[in-house]
Amino acid sequence: MDLYEHQARELFERHGIPVPRAEVTDSPREAREIARRLGGRAVVKAQVKTGGRGKAGGVKLAPDPAAAESTARQMLGADIRGHRVGTVMLAEPVDVEREFYVSYVLDRAAGGFLAIASAEGGTEIEETAATRPEAVARIPVDPARGVTSAVAAHIASAAGLPARTADVLIRLWQVLVREDALLVEVNPLVRTRDGRVLALDGKVTLDDNARFRQSRWGAEPREHTDPLEAEAAARGLTYVKLDGEVGVIGNGAGLVMSTLDVIAGRGARPADFLDIGGGASARTMADALFVVLADPAVKSVLVNVFGGITACDTVAEGILGALDAVHLTKPLVVRLDGNNAEAGRALLDRHAHPLIEQATTMDAAAHRAAELARAA
Amino acid sequence: MAIFLTKESKVLVQGMTGGEGRKHTRRMLAAGTDVVGGVNPRKAGGTVDFELPGGANGSAGEPISLPVFGSVHEGVAATGADVTVVFVPPPFAKAAVHEAVDAGTGLVVVITEGIPVHDSVAFTSYARTRGTRVIGPNCPGLITPGQSDAGIIPADIARPGRVGLVSKSGTLTYQLMHELADIGFSTCVGIGGDPVIGTTHIDCLAAFQDDPETELVVLIGEIGGDAEERAAAYIRGHVTKPVVGYVAGFTAPEGRTMGHAGAIVSGSTGTARAKQAALEAAGVRVGVTPSETAALVREALGERPGG
C-alpha cells in the first residue's frame, strides 16, 4: 500500500524526523486558513500517488492566503497524470540550500534491505543513478543488526552527506521496521539556509501482509475508481479492468497472466484480469462470472482453470449457479483441466447451455473466445 | 537423483493439525512422501490418523497414524526428519522457520501465504547463515515425481522423467507439468512469487546443472522484479544444459512503481519483454505460450511434436 505524501510526512514526524509544518485539506476555503496559520505564504501540493507531480503542475507556491485558496480550488478535482486530486497539502515554504536523497528499499536480489543515499537529491535522482552511479551510495543493511549510529555514519560518509543527517538515517530505519514498510524514501532531504535538516517530500510503501499486526492502519482503503473493480473487491476477488473485449477468469496469477497473453496472441484483447485464487468455491466462481459479465465491453468470456487444489467440478457448479442469477447473453468458453476435470466437464455437458462451450486446451479455448468476440 | 527432495527425505509437517495442513499431509502421503509426523506444541503427544485412497480394486486404503511432536527439535530427534513443510498461519511463520533451522533440518518448505516481508527477510537470512535451505514462502513446494512431494503440488500430473522445472507461479507449474506429462520430470520446484524468497531460480539452475538425471531445465517467470534477468546472466556463465523459458505477463497492465528506489536498485523495467530478451540473449529459447514452450522442450529433447 502506497501512502500519500501527507501520510508519509505524518509517519516521519511521529518517528522524530524533522519535517516542514504542513496541513492537508480538501477545501479551498480551509486552504486559505491553513496558509494564514503558516504565516501567509504556502506551498500547495496536490496529493497524488504518482511521480512527476511538480512538472505536471501539482506543486505551486502561493504568495498569500487568497492565492492559496485559488490554487487549491484549481488543483482539487484536477487530473494529474491520470490521478484525480482529492486533497492538497499546504506546507511552509523552505529556503533550500542543498538537496540530498536517502531511502531504504527492499533489494529482492539480496533478500534484504538496501540503504540508498546521494548528496545529489531531487527529481533527477534516477538519471543520476543511471549515468553517474558513483554519485549514489548503495549499502546493504544487515537485518539482524539494523541501522545503528555506526552504520548511519557509514552511509552518510559513503554518500557524502553531512554528518548531521545520520540521525535522520537512524530514524528512517525505525520507520521502515516499526511500520512494516517495504520502502521509505526522502527526496529531497534538504539543508535549509538557516541550517535545518528537513524531509521535504517522502514516499512510503507499507506491506499489506503486515496488516494483522499494524492496528493503526485501520481498514484497507478502497481506492477503486472503476465501479467494477470496487464491486469485485467487495466480493473479495482480484480483478483488474482492462480495455479489451474478451472477459478472462482463471485460477492463479501466473495462469491468468498467461491466458491474457494467449488471447492477445489470437488477435483479441483481454477485457480484464480476474484470479479466483487457489481452492475457489462455487460461490467465488459465480461472483467472478457476475463481475465479468457486468462489463458492457465484454463480448465473450473465457474461463481457464487448471485445478491443482481447485476442484473443476466445483468451478462448473459455480458457473451453472451463476446462471440462476445472471441471464447469460454472451458466449462462454470453458477450459477445465486437472483436479476433477472430468466431473466438471460432464456437469457442463449435461446442462448443455447453448451459450456455453468447452475446449480441451488453453490455446483452443483462447482461439475460440477470440473468434466469438470478433463475431459478436 | 533429483534435486533437494528424494524418496529418502523424511518430512515433518509444521501445522499438520490445522485444516490445510491435514488435507495436504494426506495428499503428500498418498503421493508416497515419507511423512514422519507433525508439530504442534498444544497437541504434543497425540496422533493424527489419515485414510489413504484405496487400491485399484476399490479396497479401503490403509490408515496411517502420525505422531504430533511438541517441537521440531523433538520431532527430528525421534524420527531423523530432514525436511519440514510449513503450513502455520502468517503471524507464527517466522518463529516456525527459526525453530526448524535451529533443529538442524536441511530443507524448510514454507507454503504459508501472506507473511510480512520483514519476517521473510529475517528467516531467510537466518537460514542462510545456518546452512538451511528455505523454499518459499508463498509457494506450492516441490515434487520429485514417483519419490516425494513436499507441499501442495498435485502428484498425479506428472511422471518421473528428465526435465527439471523451476517456477514462480503455482498454476503455471501445473500447466507445464500437464503439457509435458508424457516426458516427465526429475524435480519441479515452485519457488514462490513473494519479493523475498529463500531459493531462487539461480539456486535451482545450479542444482539441476549438477543433477545427472536432469537433461533440460524449464524456467518459468513472470513480470516484476529482475529475477529472470539475473537467472539469464547465470545461465550464460554456468549452465551447459539446455534451458527453455516461459514468461507470463506480456499483456498485463503496468504495475505500480515503487518511488525512484525500485528502478535504482535493479536498473530493470521488470517487463515480460525485457525478461524474454535477457533470456534469449543467454541462449534460452523462450515460448510465447505454455504450449509453445512445451513444444520447444520436445524439440530440444529430440521428441516428435505431441509425442
UniProtKB/TrEMBL annotation, chain A:
Mg(2+) binds at residues 187, 201. Residues 9-214 form the ATP-grasp domain. Pathway: Carbohydrate metabolism; tricarboxylic acid cycle; succinate from succinyl-CoA (ligase route): step 1/1. It catalyses: succinate + ATP + CoA = succinyl-CoA + ADP + phosphate; GTP + succinate + CoA = succinyl-CoA + GDP + phosphate. ATP binds at residues 45, 52-54, 94, 99. The keyword Lipid biosynthesis does not apply. GO terms for molecular function: ATP binding; magnesium ion binding; succinate-CoA ligase (ADP-forming) activity; succinate-CoA ligase (GDP-forming) activity. Succinyl-CoA synthetase functions in the citric acid cycle (TCA), coupling the hydrolysis of succinyl-CoA to the synthesis of either ATP or GTP and thus represents the only step of substrate-level phosphorylation in the TCA. The beta subunit provides nucleotide specificity of the enzyme and binds the substrate succinate, while the binding sites for coenzyme A and phosphate are found in the alpha subunit. This is Succinate--CoA ligase [ADP-forming] subunit beta.
UniProtKB/TrEMBL annotation, chain B:
It comes from the Bacteria. CoA binds at residues 17-20, 43, 111-113. Heterotetramer of two alpha and two beta subunits. It is an enzyme of class 6 (ligase). PROSITE patterns: SUCCINYL_COA_LIG_1 (PS01216), SUCCINYL_COA_LIG_2 (PS00399). Its EC number is 6.2.1.5. InterPro entries: Cit_synth/succinyl-CoA_lig_AS, Citrt_syn/SCS-alpha_CS, CoA-bd, CoA_lig_alpha, NAD(P)-bd_dom_sf, SUCC_ACL_C, Succinyl-CoA_synth-like. GO terms for molecular function: nucleotide binding; succinate-CoA ligase (ADP-forming) activity; succinate-CoA ligase (GDP-forming) activity. Succinyl-CoA synthetase functions in the citric acid cycle (TCA), coupling the hydrolysis of succinyl-CoA to the synthesis of either ATP or GTP and thus represents the only step of substrate-level phosphorylation in the TCA. The alpha subunit of the enzyme binds the substrates coenzyme A and phosphate, while succinate binding and nucleotide specificity is provided by the beta subunit. Transmembrane segments: none annotated. It holds the Pfam family Ligase_CoA. This is Succinate--CoA ligase [ADP-forming] subunit alpha.
